[in-house]
Design a protein that fits this description.
It holds the Pfam family Sugar_tr. The chain is an all-alpha fold and 509 residues long. It has a single domain, classed as Growth Hormone, Chain: A (Up-down Bundle), CATH 1.20.1250. The radius of gyration is 25 Å and the shape is globular.
């Protein structure tokens, strides 16, 4: 009797275990994040290589800012242009980039993220050639206009990297474009220093000529890149999407689970698995209406958050510091061109070195802690810089300690920016905007970013000549203080969540 009861209990228990396994398997398949928790996904070298190649476009954007900080000194002497023309020349490229950033979403939806990167490299190379050949202010502005369009198109880099990055390493990989920007900025500063001793007419042209190598490499590199898997899903090319996702995720099971979730977010049913659609998604749905005119509460919150973050990032004055750092050091008491450009190189080194912080920590400690510490540090650095520059007027010849503290304040400011606000703003934006709105949404965010950046760059000299340079930096300090408050109260944490889960996160109170 006991033996029969024991056998019956054993059969019932084994059946329950089988059902539990089936239930777990089904639940795991429906929820990719659960699968990733049960089995930690390996780091994808394929995704890393793709992000590295795409990030070369961001290197061009950084070089453009860095090289202009020193080249403007020689342009002014060579072409006999005024300070007002200099600041318009330096800042207008950001205004011109609005053309590219507002059309990049439509272009990338039509021809793909990868092909848009190829177009970007061609336009940037054309802008460089026009700038180098310019013999008057008009042609300089034409060259900057073409270059600006290319810089606007570079929003696609952020979209592409976010869409090919696994959730477990997305914080690291989406920081690579920011690393490239800072590396480009440093190369621009080094280029200023290296060619400063050439004849004035030749020096600034050579500074721009050396920037022609990266767009050529990027153009050829795009042929080895995979297309964005989420773009492939929107186009119905699910077979290719599955191949890319398998290489990125590291296992066919996880790839299939993630593909199911991406299909659901894109509005594709399971029965459509192998159907290839040739229609452009943005033609099927009025993306701009859904994005701006009649957004859902979730989309509305995401867009307001992203746009506000981009506005505050640039309104903090970061481009004024990196673009006009030689002038800032000159106000602090430096005199020779060699010292000014040498100190600027140190700024570039610091800004590039500190980018490693978000790369290593954003996936461990989260986005919010880095943003809060970054904005607090930037505000403190700007207050210190303002106090020091205010004291310069009390001396006929500024003492060495004034110059040293000024340099330290600038280094602290750009270091805190690179350690949080700079890279996290872009990464946070690219991962929070929903899939079907991502291209246009990021284009709108970059448009706000570039517009504010252009206004800051084109007004910095005029403002500090009116109210003093120390008061100008006090204003920037107040703005970055508002950024700290905004991050603390309005930004949810997105660490470790899939791009599809983040949309649900913003639907919570």
């Amino acid at each position: 009797m006991l033996e029969h009861l024991s056998q019956l209990a054993s059969v019932i228990f084994s059946k329950k275990m089988e059902k539990a396994k089936e239930s777990t398997s089904e639940t795991t398949l429906r929820h990719p994040l659960l699968l990733s928790k049960l089995k930690k996904p390996p780091k994808s070298k394929y995704a890393f290589a793709s992000a590295m190649i795409a990030s070369m476009a961001s290197l061009l954007a950084g070089y453009n800012i860095g090289v202009m900080s020193g080249a403007q000194i020689f342009m002014k002497d060579d072409l006999k242009i005024s300070d007002v023309q200099v600041e318009i020349l330096a800042g207008s490229v950001h205004i011109y980039s609005l053309v590219g950033s507002l059309t990049a979403g439509w272009t990338s939806d039509c021809i793909g993220r990868r092909n848009t990167l190829l177009v970007t490299s061609i336009i940037y190379l054309l802008g460089l050639l026009i700038t180098c050949a310019a013999n008057n202010y008009f042609w300089l502005m034409v060259g900057r206009f073409v270059t600006g369009i290319a810089i606007g198109y570079m929003v696609v880099v952020r979209i592409y990297v976010a869409e090919v990055s696994p959730a477990a390493t997305r914080g690291f990989l989406t920081a690579l474009p920011e690393v490239a920007i800072n590396a480009g900025l440093l190369f621009g500063y080094v280029s200023n220093f290296a060619f400063a001793y050439l004849p004035v007419r030749l020096s600034w042209r050579i500074m721009f000529v050396v920037a022609s190598v990266p767009p050529i490499l990027l153009g050829f590199g795009t042929f080895s890149l995979p297309e964005s898997l989420r773009w492939l899903v929107m186009k119905g090319q699910l077979g290719k999407a599955r191949e890319v996702l398998t290489q990125i995720s590291g296992s066919p099971e996880e790839a299939e689970a993630q593909l199911i979730e991406i299909k659901e977010k894109a509005g594709i049913t399971r029965e459509d698995t192998e159907v290839v659609s040739t229609q452009n998604y943005s033609q099927d749905k009025n993306i701009w209406t859904e994005l701006i005119v009649t957004p859902t509460p979730v989309v509305c919150r995401i867009i307001i958050t992203v746009l506000a973050l981009h506005f505050l990032e640039q309104a903090s004055g970061i481009d004024a510091v990196v673009l006009y750092s030689p002038r800032i050091f000159e106000k602090a008491g430096m005199t020779t061109t060699k010292d000014l450009l040498g100190a600027t190189i140190i700024v570039g080194l610091t800004k590039t070195a500190l980018i490693v912080v978000p790369m290593l920590l954003s996936d461990r400690v989260g986005r919010r802690p880095l943003l809060l510490s970054s904005t607090a540090g930037m505000a403190a650095s700007l207050i210190m810089l303002s106090l020091v520059l205010q004291m310069v007027g009390d001396f006929v010849i500024a003492p060495t300690w004034i110059v040293a503290v000024c340099i330290m304040a600038v280094l602290s400011y750009v270091g805190f920016f690179s350690a949080g606000l700079g890279p996290i703003t872009m990464a946070y934006s690219s991962e929070t905007i929903p899939l079907k709105l991502r291209a246009q949404g990021m284009g709108l965010a970059i448009a706000v970013n570039r517009l504010v950046c252009g206004v800051v760059a084109m007004t910095f000299i005029s403002i500090y000549e009116e109210i003093s340079i120390s008061c100008t930096f006090y204003i920037y300090a107040v703005i970055i203080g508002f950024a700290f408050v905004f991050v603390y109260f309005c930004l949810p944490e997105t660490r470790g969540k899939s791009l599809e889960e983040i949309e649900v996160l913003f639907g919570k109170k």
